[in-house]
């Protein structure tokens, strides 16, 4: 064996040994790992965490506790992670909403997207334009025409969000910009009250990811699924056209995700150990089946460098959209 091959083997052996020792040290520390969810219990994010946590505990051979800490668009939970030691004992379950958009939309938030390092994704969440049950539209072009008609009459189409600067606010503003039609933003404190008002006919549309409960609301006629934001039609709503199929909103394709993050200065062996465990969780048949039953997609685990690149690409994409709609921090 030549010197170069021996050096490569030596480095690989050292890395494997380091990962093994790190995983063992994390398991034997006696300190529970905290899975930080930036929303109250009962929402989609919490459901994901409750499914993941026992399986992650098994792979790490340690206790995993789910902590729900809502407020400020996810910033309160994010700041708690940043204020904690960079030892991998607290990880953040986040999405573009909390870690990319909130820092741009909430003036009081001082952290940046780059203060966090992604470790592994767990779900890809498709989105639908849901509407009040009597909204007279059934696809993207009809939605565009109705929005133009209402704006001309001085009664702009209303769209719900979970707060200023949230993903659903930004997508509503982007839709308004693409259509060149004014629409009225109606912010709520969460998805539940927004959905309640949608069912009550108090708001016209709500662009949001969804779980099984939304499918049941549509099937029972309490709300309407107008169009999907995915490139192709979705398994849960096969008869619902995509916005991409329309002329007015062709190319309006978006989804969201749930990914696990740590502080950017977390030691590399710790990040590698967490990445390995979370990848095993994402490959777990029980986890995948349970999450998919909720209407979510569980993508194949990515290599750590690809997770990092995907996050960087998303940051660039949403910063460009925020600039195009002149999103101002409030």
UniProtKB/TrEMBL annotation:
Signal peptide annotation: 1-27
Coiled coil (residue ranges): none
Protein keywords: Signal
Family (UniProt): Belongs to the UPF0065 (bug) family.
Pfam families with a match to the protein in the record: TctC (PF03401)
Name by which UniProt lists this protein: ABC transporter substrate-binding protein
Keyword Lipid biosynthesis listed: no
